[in-house]
Amino acid sequence: MTGQYAKVIINPVAGANSTLRKWPHISRLLRHFGLSFDHQLTEGVGHAMELAREAAIAGYRFLVAVGGDGTVNEVANGILIAEAAGEAGMGTVNTGTGSDFVRSLGLSSDYTKACAALTGERWLDIDVGVVQYGSGEQGGRRFFVNSAGVGFDAEVAKAKERMPRYFRGTIPYLLGMGRKLLGYSNKKVYLEVDGRGETRKVLSVVVANGAYFGGGMNVAPQADLTDNLLDVLTVGDIGKLELVKAFPSIYKGTHITHPKVRMERASRVRIESAERLLVHADGEVVGEGPANFWLLPKALRVAV
Q: For all residues of the chain together, what is the average pLDDT?
């Protein structure tokens, strides 16, 4: 990274609208540690992706996301859809509320340490997930670096979008969960994991590349961003009271021993249902099912 000229992309509303206030301090730290860069502020959903794509095509070989998990997802997508994707690397300074990607990657949320890492010499080539969702004009494709999935978690992600931005950490997930819990019904889905298919009723299916999810929940405790596999967590036909009782165990990663939870590792996953099934990628709702998930091994270089 030393000697590279970077494009820094800042989401000013990340972190409960606090990133714009934090940016002058972060900017000084970046310059203090010797990073040469120019920067742009995002103006709305999807803008970081477009800025990153344009920067990669323009020849930037180091792009830094300043924001939360959504900003990281957009910058990663911008790099990966650009023609020069294989040559550009990504760094991150976390200012978001969830911080799941930096947890999964083992990076510090401390700004000083994060900025120092951006001018070091350590890179990690991480796997990237892909989700193909919907069909026809309603379909699309999205890369994800941490996790994706369908069902209750996607419904919670949708509920979070309508919440005030001043909530931080896992609070938005918990509030979204509270809003959706009473009215949500488990879905009957056809789930195919590496060619092995079955029909069953589920609360959620999480397709994880990294370990953390929802603002600090250790949803896939054995997941590794570099192991060339997706960790597939299926929460079966669990009742609402049973879910509430089991919920604290997710933070410890001990939920995987629950009799209605199944963990598998795979390179390809397909999920379809006759019912409406929301799909999320890195905590952002991207569309509806059916959904196909697969892995791109070592597809993105990240500064660590």
A: 91
